[in-house]
Structure formats: structure tokens, C-alpha cells
Automatic annotation (TrEMBL):
Coiled coil: none annotated. GO terms for molecular function: cell adhesion molecule binding. The keyword Electron transport does not apply. PANTHER family: NEPHRIN. This is Ig-like domain-containing protein. Gene3D superfamilies: Immunoglobulins (2.60.40.10). Pfam families: V-set. GO terms for cellular component: cell-cell junction; plasma membrane. It is found in: Membrane. GO terms for biological process: cell-cell adhesion. It comes from the Eukaryota. Residues 30-129 form the Ig-like domain.
Length: 144
């Protein structure tokens, strides 16, 4: 009976170490978290918007997605000339800037921070709604 208890205890230690349940020196390291998460925004067509995303204790790589489509890691976003990533890695700032918004920009955006050693991935999202001005509607649907 004692042998079985010792064997189960040893198995429990091995299982907990493998599953990461025992504290290690890295547990004291701060985890990446959001300092500022993006907020839902309603913009008028033609406005400039900034979706804010700031990370404390940044460890992973940061990118934005638009309706699930990854926009990449660089300041310039290929295929989206009006989009840019205003980033300051040392401060953990990764704001997505959209100039001259159009109705096509209305979407669900997500700031994604990838996993890194001892850090889980984190994500925060915001909805951008773009409303057309009466002038834009008149030009699109009005009589000429």
C-alpha cells in the first residue's frame, strides 16, 4: 500500500511538472497584457480613425486582423494603402490608423499578440462602423 502511494505521488509530480503546474523561476515574470484595448468606433465616411492597442510586458509579435484576415506585422499594410500601423515596440504601442475611411472599412478588427516563451497569445477586438454622409449618398444614389 505504501509503495502504491509513493508511486502515485511520484507520478503526480511528473505529471504536474510536464503540465506546468509547479512554480518555476519564470512564473515571477510578468505576462503580456493589454494596457489599452481598441474601442468600437463609429466614423463618418472620409474620417481618419485610430484603433488603439497598447501592450504591457510585450513578448510576442503583434498584428491586426480585419474580419479575420491578417494584415501583417509591418508599418505598411500591403493591399491597404490607407492603413498603417503606428508602432513603438519599446512602449508596446501598436495603433492601427485608417485614413479617408470608406464603407468598405467597416469590419471587426482584432489586435493580436502572439505567444512567446512563458506567454500565452492575447487578443482584443473592436468594431468599426462607417456611416456615409448625405453628400456621399446623393452622389452614389442621386440623379445626375
Amino acid at each position: 500500500m505504501m509503495y502504491l502511494a509513493v508511486k502515485l505521488f511520484c507520478f503526480s509530480i511528473v505529471l504536474n511538472v510536464v503540465c506546468g503546474r509547479y512554480a518555476t523561476s519564470t512564473d515571477a515574470e510578468p505576462q503580456q497584457t493589454f494596457r489599452i484595448t481598441p474601442n468600437d468606433i463609429e466614423a463618418v465616411q472620409g474620417d481618419e480613425v485610430v484603433l488603439r492597442c497598447e501592450i504591457e510586458h510585450l513578448a510576442g509579435r503583434v498584428q491586426w486582423t480585419k474580419d479575420g484576415f491578417a494584415l501583417g506585422f509591418g508599418n505598411e499594410i500591403v493591399g491597404y494603402p490607407r492603413f498603417s500601423l503606428n508602432q513603438n515596440h519599446s512602449d508596446g504601442v501598436y495603433n492601427l490608423r485608417i485614413t479617408n475611411t470608406s464603407c468598405d472599412d467597416a469590419a471587426l478588427y482584432q489586435c493580436q499578440v502572439g505567444p512567446a516563451k512563458h506567454n500565452h497569445p492575447i487578443r482584443a477586438q473592436a468594431k468599426l462602423t462607417v456611416v456615409a454622409t448625405p453628400k456621399a449618398l446623393h452622389g452614389k444614389y442621386g440623379r445626375t
